[in-house]
Amino acid sequence: MALVAPVISLLPVEGIHAKAQATMPSRSARTAGLIPIYPSDRRCSPLTSLYSSWDDVDGTKRDEPHSGVDGGRLGEPILAPAGGTVVAAWRANWGWGAEGALLIRHSKEDLGLQDGPNQYYSEFDHLRYGEIRTFKPGQRVERGERLASVYRPGGKEHYLPEVHWEVWAIEDESATRWSTNRHGARRWTNKTAHLIDPVRMLALNAPPRNDGRAEIAVFDPARDYRDFRGFTYILPCPKRDESGEDAPTPR
């Protein structure tokens, strides 16, 4: 039986990246994001601002619905949600200051899907450029591989730590173009791109509940992922011991 592709909740992007302009109502998230349910035997570093939310990490209100998810504590590792290929690692600026950004392409095969879009992009923002500058276009990354660590928007200390993660469905990768945004930094555009709630891609193996909550999958290096669909969590989820406390981290 054919596997079901994830639901896409946005109209096509008209060649503009999410952070290229201050307000973009024509491509803002319209559907409420799913609420992650973390495994009870794990103590996961939580997401702090969800897809389509109007609430920022610091509790302030956004100018438009959130185009991805935010989360993480300063210095925590960011893990690849699936196997894929590096598209670019670059010096970005979305208006908060210079920072690093990383773009990874995942194929349907990488995600265990048979139907749906041909490619998916994962974009990670608010990184230290020095941590990602060695990534080269075409370089292969594997599920669970450490990509970078949680930093701050623009590297500014008055912003709370977070990694911003966007997921895009890409119908035609050849339509991806690079240009310069109004802050003088690189940006990509693709007229066939659609935003997807990252939590939906973390929950493809268990249908979301009627109340919008979804059980997410965390990365386990001992697991065989050949029959797995979608993404695994990008932040640490250490196991708890029998007392409910965090189990010691293997060294």
CATH T-level fold name:
Glucose Permease (Domain IIA)
Q: Indicate the structural class.
A: mainly beta
Give the overall pLDDT as a whole number: 85
Percent of residues in β-strands: 25-35%
Distance between the termini: 42 Å
Look at the structure and give the CATH class. Mainly Beta
Indicate the multimeric state: single chain
Tell me the count of domains.
Answer: 1
Number of helices: 2
Estimate the helix proportion, in percent.
Answer: under 10%
Strand count: 14
Secondary-structure arrangement, i.e. CATH architecture = Distorted Sandwich
Cα-based radius of gyration, to the nearest Å: 17 Å
Report the sheet with the most strands, covering strand number, pairing sense and barrel closure.
8 strands, antiparallel
N-to-C series of helices and strands: EEEEEEEHEEEEEEHE
Low-confidence parts? 1-30, 247-251
Q: How would you characterize this protein structure?
A:
The chain has 2 helices and 14 strands; from the N terminus they run E-E-E-E-E-E-E-H-E-E-E-E-E-E-H-E. The chain is mainly beta and 251 residues long. The longest helix is centred in the C-terminal third of the chain and has 5 residues, at 198-202. The strands form 4 sheets. Strands 2, 3, 5, 6, 7, 8, 10 and 13 form an 8-stranded antiparallel sheet that branches. A two-stranded parallel sheet has the order 1-14. It has a single domain (25-215), classed as Glucose Permease (Domain IIA) (Distorted Sandwich), CATH 2.70.70. A hairpin with a 5-residue loop joins strand 11 and strand 12. 4% of the residues lie in helices and 27% in strands.
